[in-house]
Amino acid sequence: MSDFSRGFWKRAGQNTADRLSNAVFGDKWARPYKRVTDEARADAIRTRAEAAERRAEAKAYEMEKRAEIAERNQLNAIDAAVLQNVDKVIAMPFAENVSELVNQLSGLVTQLSINSFSKSTAEEKIRAKYTETVYQKLEQGINILLIKDPYNPNMQYIYDAYLKAKKERGKTTRRKALLITWGIIGWAFMFGLGLASEGTPQLLVITIFVSFITAFICLRISRKRKKKDKRRLADARKAFDARQSQIQQLQQEQEQIMTQPVAEQPVVEQRQTFSQKQLLDHLWNKYSHLSPLMQNGYRACQISEQKDILIIGLYCNTDQIVKGKTIYPLSQHERISSLDYNLNGAGINLQSRAAYMDLLPIQSSNAPIEILNEIILNPKMFDYVIEQMSLNQTIMEDVVRPELIIVKSDESWAFFGKNPEYVWMGYAFKTIAKTSYGELCCIVGFRPEDRIQPGRHQTNLLGTKVLFHQGIAIPAIETRKWLNL
Q1: HSE of 219, CA atoms in CB hemisphere, 13 A
Q2: C-alpha dist (Å) from residue 144 to 34, 336, 410
């Protein structure tokens, strides 16, 4: 018999014996290697499945992290771009000219119409920063236009667009407020029902009454705000008309006082001296109660006639406040040594040809920042500053008529119209020379924008030289040179 036959029948006998053994005795007589092999195979399959699952989870986690990083990078890029545009909007200066200002505001309106206040997603929250900035800038520009020209033909369109944006901006806030309010009312109502079920129905009535009162108050507040917004344009126009009327009345008063003769004194000197005190008294009686800085009285250098040189300061910077309304001669100026250096020296004496004037004859021992904050930038003092500057211009134009003006403080430049963004007296200048003492200009007329004296169409100071002083002190020899140019 061949080896194959012997092996075959041997294997068949073993399998037959195993079958009989398993049938008679069960697993107790089974060969152990079969069970071990099946369990090992199951463990291996389970291990591979778990490893595959872990690899899938790791891959999914990695992809999720990559997506988060990509999204974060994208949001950071958007945020950087938005902040850059935000800075541009904030830094944008408003034009002094009304037509240019209207064009700027129209551009802001367009920006608001194509951007959204929505903050539903992270990206929308970032983009809403730009929309909010444009809204705030538009509101700021509208405030300026309401002061300058509330009757502008484009005013209604711009203001309606602003109100529409304001309504859109407040939707989220109003929605949250309403949800909170009605949530409180609903909770109170349910609380009242609970009390009523326990035998205290009067508390339910009180709760319902309080709920309705709360809802009514919220509705009234919302309506009042809407009415105030709609009334704002009309109020601005009324205020504008009042200011224009006040300026015209002031000019008429000044013209009457300047031409009013006083008996028993030389006509020119008496008229001007009397006018200066009377006009300053009029301003102090009208406005001094609005600011503590004005309650000590004024201190002004006497101006009574034509002078070739006019030196300008911002305010009466004094070490010791003198109460009362004082008009003093130039020789008693507290900084007379400084003025002497400008007017006298090296055989030169120009004091008799000079006058001095503080644009704001208010006494203060502090830095100019106090005058800036308490008077110039104080909304309550806005009308006073206008009237005071109008009086100053009248004195310069009709009394002093100088050939040379030295503006000693750079805080005063804006009132002459030297800075493009401010008009005030509204002079137009041509630069003659830039020196180590400052910029020397000459007056060539008035700027085309609205001024504090719109009725004065021509200036008496045409060709007058103006030195906007900045830097080292001016010696008398330079003053004479500029005067004789």
Answers
A1: 7
A2: 95, 41, 24
Looking at the chain, which residues constitute the CATH 3.40.470 domain(s)? Answer: 265-483
pTM for the complete prediction? Answer: 0.48
Q: Which tokens go with 270?
A: 């008496």
Crossing angle of helices 171-197 and 201-258, in 10° steps, is: 150
CATH match for 265-483 among 2.160.20, 3.40.50, 3.40.470, 2.60.40: 3.40.470
How far apart CA 404 and CA 307 sit, in angstroms, is 9
Tens digit of each residue's pLDDT, the chain (485 residues): 566 666 666 666 767 776 666 666 655 555 555 555 667 777 778 888 888 888 888 888 888 888 888 888 888 888 888 888 888 888 888 887 888 888 888 888 888 888 888 887 888 888 888 888 888 888 888 888 887 788 888 888 888 888 888 888 876 555 555 556 666 666 666 665 565 555 555 555 666 666 666 666 666 665 565 666 667 777 777 777 776 776 677 667 666 665 555 444 333 333 334 478 888 988 898 898 888 888 888 989 999 889 999 999 888 888 788 888 889 888 888 777 778 888 887 788 888 899 999 999 988 887 777 788 888 888 888 889 999 999 999 999 999 999 999 998 777 888 898 888 888 898 999 999 888 888 999 999 998 888 888 888 889 999 999 999 887 888 888 888 888 86
Token reading at 102? 């209207």
List the end-to-end C-alpha distance of the chain, in Å, as a whole number: 144
Mark out the alpha helices in 92-154 (DSSP H runs).
98-114, 122-148
Phi, psi of 354 (to 5 degrees): -120, 155
Q: Distance (Å, rounded) from C-alpha 470 to C-alpha 454?
A: 30
Beta bridge mates, 467: 406, 440
